[in-house]
């Protein structure tokens, strides 16, 4: 039974890492579930306080992931059109990896601002903000998933 739980945990970790980039997968929560599964093996390496602390970290990062791109867009002068455009661009960019994933939010925010009748300069600033917000959110999630993967592997060894 331990082997099955560990394999499922590894799949969840890989899904969590993929979820840092793919917006449809909740990256850090998936990776966190791998620690919970490992706790049900004979290793049970984590204390309750450790699991609660990481649950709080994962929750905060998940909430921030929704806020950071919006903040980036607004901080650089964007509107709701830029925010929606960034989101649509990210989803469209998934069909053209890896460059589409990076440039989709940028192009989407730009187009969203132009459709929202912003001038080119404002649209470009908004696009840069959306791109910076997307990168910040992605790096934040990758860092958390990397730490969770570290603890998962450490718990097995």
Description:
This protein has helices spanning 2-19, 27-39, 48-75, 80-93, 99-115, 120-156. The chain is an all-alpha fold and 157 residues long. α1 runs antiparallel to α2 (27-39) and α3 (48-75) crosses α4. The two termini are 17 Å apart. The model has no long low-confidence stretch (mean pLDDT 91).
Give a nutshell description of this structure.
With 157 residues, the chain is mostly helical. Helices cover 81% and strands 0% of the residues. The model has no long low-confidence stretch (mean pLDDT 91).
Topology (SSEs and partners):
Blueprint: H1 2-19, H2 27-39, H3 48-75, H4 80-93, H5 99-115, H6 120-156
What distinguishing features does this structure have?
0% strand; 157 residues; 81% helix; 6 helices; mainly alpha
């Amino acid at each position: 039974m331990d082997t099955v739980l560990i394999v499922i945990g590894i799949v969840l970790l890989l899904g969590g890492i993929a979820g840092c980039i793919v917006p449809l997968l909740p990256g850090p929560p998936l990776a966190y579930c791998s620690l919970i599964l490992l706790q049900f093996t004979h290793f049970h390496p984590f204390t309750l306080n450790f699991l609660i602390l990481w649950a709080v970290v994962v929750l905060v990062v998940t909430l921030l992931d929704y806020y950071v791109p919006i903040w980036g867009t607004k901080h650089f002068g964007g509107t709701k059109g830029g925010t929606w455009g960034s989101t649509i661009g990210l989803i469209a960019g998934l069909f053209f990896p890896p460059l589409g994933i990076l440039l989709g939010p940028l192009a989407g925010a730009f187009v969203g601002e132009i459709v929202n009748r912003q001038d080119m300069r404002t649209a470009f600033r908004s696009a840069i903000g959306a791109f910076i917000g997307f990168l910040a959110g992605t790096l934040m999630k990758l860092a958390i998933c990397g730490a969770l993967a570290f603890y998962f592997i450490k718990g097995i060894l």
